[in-house]
Structure formats: structure tokens, C-alpha cells
Amino acid sequence: MASLNLISVFIFLLAAMTWAAQAQTSDPVTWAKRVETRTEVISTLQFYFHDRLSGQNPSAIRIAQSSKTNNSATLFGSLMMVDDQLTVGPDPSSKVVGWARGMYGSAGQTDLGLIMVLTYGFTDGIYDGSSFSLLSINPAMNPVREMAIVGGTGLFRLARGYAIARTYSADATTGDAIVGYNVTIATYV
Ligand SMILES: *[C@@H]1O[C@H](CO)[C@@H](O)[C@H](O)[C@H]1NC(C)=O
Ligand SMILES: *[C@@H]1O[C@H](CO)[C@@H](O)[C@H](O)[C@H]1NC(C)=O
């Protein structure tokens, strides 16, 4: 008798769980919906980033720093605002395909780690008007580093991906740098 009761309790629980699962999927709300899709687009981009701190018209300027920044080997606490050009080749006079706008700041106390908060916007061909946003630590002294892409607009709506950056040239005196980027982005059709 006891075991029969247990079995009916079990059957009742199973039925309740099934009902609950059905109720979840067949209970639409007016304000949201879910659509399953697996149609993915992978975009690969290759360009060069020109960060110019020197000269009359720098593309990166220091906008803030802490009182301790000048005593820090990594300039910890300094913050730069940038509007850097993106070109097809490492030569600054090669074709401009977009810009990188935003900020980077020194976020590492013991080694150089720049916190990159930048939107990369494009002005060429079908990519004109599209952008992706990058948010990552950039260990800029490493020859190659990987950074996360967390979103985008236009052709890069719902972007997720990563950028591989490799310093092409850097001037230790001025801080000017040219950096090659290989970017992989996944979006949906
Ligand atoms: C830190 O150094 C910069 C560049 O040499 C200088 O412009 C700035 O005044 C210094 N800041 C402080 C707080 O000493
Ligand atoms: C990007 O990829 C190309 C071709 O695979 C390679 O030659 C180049 O070194 C890469 N650049 C970076 C910045 O990784």
C-alpha cells in the first residue's frame, strides 16, 4: 500500500513537472518573444590603427590622471581620449577605412595594461556606417594581444568576437604607435 502511494506521488510529480514545462513555453507575453536561429555570419577584418600622441594635431590626448600617475612606471591612472584613423595598410597615407573613438587608460600597476573602451567605426563600402565596440585589457607591451568585441551596429549588430592586435611600429619617445588588427566577428544573417 505504502509503495503504491509512493508511485502515485511520483506520477503526480512527473505530471506536474511536465505541465509546468509546457506552461512555460506556451505562455506568451505581449512584451517579449523568442525566436530560434542558427544562421551565423563570420566577418574577418584587417586594418591598421594609428595612435599619434605627438605633433600639433595628436589623435590621442591625455584627459586625466591621478596625483600618483607620474610616479608610476606604467602611468597607472592616466586616461586618454582618442580619435584614431584606421587604414588598409601600415602606411598612414594608405586608404582610410574608419576610425577608433573612445578612451584607453592605464589600469595596470605592475605591468602595462591599458583598459580599452573604444568603438571602431567604418566609412568604406558596405561597412560605411557600421561599427563594433571593443572592451578589454590591452597588455600593449606584448607583441600580440587578444581583445574582446562585445557588440556592434549596422552590419555588426549583435556582434561578438575578438581582435588580434600586433604592434607594427612604436616610438618610445613620443608614444606614437601603429598597430595591425585582425578581427573576427560573429553576427546573425
Ligand atoms: C605629470 O607629467 C606630465 C607630463 O610630463 C605633466 O604635464 C603634468 O603636469 C605632471 N602632473 C603632475 C601631477 O605632476
Ligand atoms: C593577420 O592575418 C594575416 C594573414 O593571415 C597575417 O599575415 C597578419 O600577420 C595578421 N596580423 C595580425 C595583426 O595578427
Mind sketching the topology for me?
Blueprint: H1 2-25, E1 40-51, E2 60-64, E3 79-87, E4 96-106, E5 114-122, E6 131-138, E7 144-153, E8 160-170, E9 177-188
Antiparallel strand pairs: 1-3, 1-9, 2-3, 3-4, 4-5, 5-6, 6-7, 7-8, 8-9
Bound molecules: 2-acetamido-2-deoxy-beta-D-glucopyranose (2 copies).
Structure description:
Keywords: Apoplast, Secreted, Signal. This protein has 1 helix and 9 strands; from the N terminus they run αβββββββββ. The protein is mainly β and 189 residues long. The chain has one domain: Beta Barrel (AOC barrel-like), CATH 2.40.480. It has an 8-stranded antiparallel β-barrel with strand order 1-3-4-5-6-7-8-9. Strand 8 and strand 9 (177-188) form a beta hairpin. The radius of gyration is 25 Å and the shape is globular. Bound molecules: 2-acetamido-2-deoxy-beta-D-glucopyranose (NAG) (2 copies). One 2-acetamido-2-deoxy-beta-D-glucopyranose binds next to loops.
Structural class: mainly beta
Domain tally = 1
Largest sheet, in brief, is:
8 strands, antiparallel, barrel
Order of helices and strands: HEEEEEEEEE
Q: What is the CATH top level name?
A: Mainly Beta
- Name the strands of the widest sheet in spatial order: 1-3-4-5-6-7-8-9
Q: Return the average pLDDT rounded to an integer.
A: 91
Gyration radius from CA atoms, angstroms:
25 Å
Bound molecules: 2-acetamido-2-deoxy-beta-D-glucopyranose
Number of strands: 9
Distance between the termini: 59 Å
Pfam families: Dirigent
Signal peptide: 1-23
Subunit structure: Homodimer.
InterPro entries: Allene_oxi_cyc_Dirigent, Dirigent
